[in-house]
Amino acid sequence: MRALYTASTGMAAQEMNVEVISNNIANMRTTGFKRQRAEFQDLLYQQLRRVGASSSDAGTVLPTGVDIGSGVKLVATPRVMSQGTVFPTEKTYDVAIRGEGYFKIELPDGTDAYTRDGSFEIDPNGQLVTADGYTISPGITVPNNALSVTISPVGEVQATIAGQTAPQNLGQLQLARFVNKSGLEAKGDNMFLETEASGAPLEDVPGAEGFGTLLQGYLEQANVNAVTEISDLIAAQRAYEMNSKVVSSADQMLQNTSQMLR
Predict the structure, then answer these.
(1) What pLDDT does residue 54 have?
(2) What's the pLDDT tens digit per position in 179-188?
(3) I need a labelling partner for 56 at 20 to 30 A (CA). Which of 44, 80, 95, 180 fits?
(4) How many CA atoms lie within 13 A of 211 on its CB side?
């Protein structure tokens, strides 16, 4: 019976939907995390009576047809790249992006990665790095005798040095943005990789046209809304239950049919 297979695709689709929702909920406290949503498409149809086909020798046509669907499939899990809430941390090297843009990170193999996670640290050489020790590009090195470091909204990094009245310029942070942000490949560790779908990165200083600004001492929270995720989870559970009910009903019908043939 076709209903068994059709309902099974619905159950599989809702299982994937729950997995996407569970990942969103699990990362509610992940800095810079962008939530995903599951998108579905219907599968092929069996045309028992094709709409528009000729219904007589006089040239009349069928105004409607008979199409039997074969279920549903998961087609994409795009990321919602909206701005997350920024919150204060009172930590010198925490930097949040307010608006468009990603920090450019140089991975150990030379590959460039991109992140919204601005929870930076200083390594033993004084370089500004990520929590995993990856270098920020372009590199910023903080002198050992720096008393304080300030990062302006436009990315200028300056340090107050003991014995000097004027602050010392340490470098300029840059941001990258993409034509299709949803086309970035999630690498894990709060990082994304460039793909053909995302397009090449466009780089400029914070505050430039089309780019966001920086907030020192702040971090961007995940853009996951707990209420939305829970309501989506309940809807997915109910859809799964209804599909499983169809399987049970189809099985009962097959059982009744088989008993009639005995």
Answers:
(1) 79
(2) 999 899 999 9
(3) 44
(4) 22
Structure-token match 């340490």, residue found? 170
The answer as to whether 33 is a domain residue is no
pLDDT tens-digit map of 46-69: 887 888 787 777 778 878 878 888
Say which amino acid occupies 5: Y
Place of tokens 């997350």: 84
Residue 34 belongs to a domain: no
Q: How far is CA 201 from the centre of its chain?
A: 18
pTM of the model: 0.85
| Cα gap 116→101, rounded to integer Å | 8
15: domain range?
A: 2-28+39-76+224-260
Distance CA 206, CA 153 (A): 7
Which tokens sit at 126?
A: 């004084």
Length of the chain in residues, anyone? 262
Query: At residue 143, what is the residue type?
Result: P
